[in-house]
Design brief:
Blueprint (H helix, E strand, L loop, with lengths): L1 E4 L4 H4 L9 H10 L4 E5 L9 H13 L3 E5 L5 H14 L3 E4 L10 H18 L2 E5 L6 H11 L4 E5 L11 H8 L3 E6 L1 E6 L6 E6 L8 H8 L1 H4 L2 E4 L9 H21 L2
Parallel strand pairs: 1-2, 1-10, 2-3, 3-4, 4-5, 5-6, 6-7, 7-10
Antiparallel strand pairs: 8-9
Helix pairs in contact: 4-5, 5-6, 7-8
Length: 264
């Protein structure tokens, strides 16, 4: 299933715009685009909401016919337990996370211990943890970690754009993780020369126009055959002012959805 995530609304949620978009506003915008899935990912206000606010947000998603996934950073057992509780509120079946959190950088043996402590609760609830490919942890090490835990409720959130910062090749990350992928972050990326030809900027571009070989990902991972959701995100640079940036963000989202649908 195609979904949108909070990173598709990054600037619209930002305080740099006059009227930041609320979570419910993002739900409504998602539904208006004919999309049935939303991933609340790294959305700081979520953890500050009280029980009533959370139930209202979950009810708003249900009323709109949206399925919800969640996303956070870190795998401390207490932290994952909190997100398992949030998953129950939102009826979410997946929590995307990262091995390194905002305050923790576990070595791999400790990461495995933490995950093994958390996984029985996720398995009982039927909720999957998807650990994202990221530059902080080598893709091969992430694959070994997920494989060592040996749980059907632990997989990989595949985001090939992140691994470039570790000098890994996106296509190789796709191939290495394909059998473990439980979630896909769909965005594109490219290098551009800096002014004066001194260095490069690595940034986002509209999906289907950059260096990401998305057809290769579809062929290798087969997400649609396996029921793996594809969540639209962006690395959209600030466009000089709020109005232009929001306009570009909405256009990138629209064209990303069109691109994904065209590959069906």
């Amino acid at each position: 299933m195609i979904g949108l995530g909070t990173y598709a609304f990054f600037w619209q949620h930002s305080e740099r715009v006059d009227e930041p978009l609320s979570l419910t506003g993002a739900f409504e915008a998602t539904r208006a685009l004919g999309v049935d899935l939303f991933q609340i990912c790294d959305f700081a206000p979520l953890q500050r909401m009280g029980g009533g606010e959370l139930r209202e947000a979950a009810a708003a998603a249900r009323d709109l016919g949206l399925a919800i996934e969640l996303g956070t950073r870190g795998i401390e057992p207490e932290h994952l337990s909190m997100f398992l509780d949030l998953a129950e509120v939102f009826e979410a079946r997946l929590v995307r996370s990262m091995v390194y959190g905002d305050r923790s950088r576990p070595a791999l043996p400790e990461a495995e211990r933490w995950l093994r402590k958390s996984l029985p609760g996720f398995e009982s609830a039927g909720v999957t943890i998807a650990l994202e490919t990221y530059e902080q942890v080598a893709t091969a090490d992430l694959v070994d970690l997920v494989s060592a835990c040996g749980s059907d409720r632990l997989g990989v959130c595949l985001d090939p754009g992140n691994v470039v910062a570790r000098l890994e090749r996106p296509r190789e990350a796709v191939a290495a993780t394909a059998h473990l992928v439980a979630n896909v972050h769909a965005k594109d990326f490219a290098f551009t020369r800096e002014a004066g030809w001194v260095g490069f900027t690595y940034s986002g571009v509209p999906l289907g126009t950059g260096l990401h070989d998305y057809p290769h990902l579809l062929e290798t991972v087969r997400p649609r055959e396996r029921g793996v959701n594809e969540i639209v995100e962006h690395w959209l640079p600030w466009q000089g002012d709020a109005r232009a940036t929001v306009r570009a963000e909405r256009e990138w989202t629209r064209t990303a959805i069109e691109y994904l649908r065209s590959t069906a």
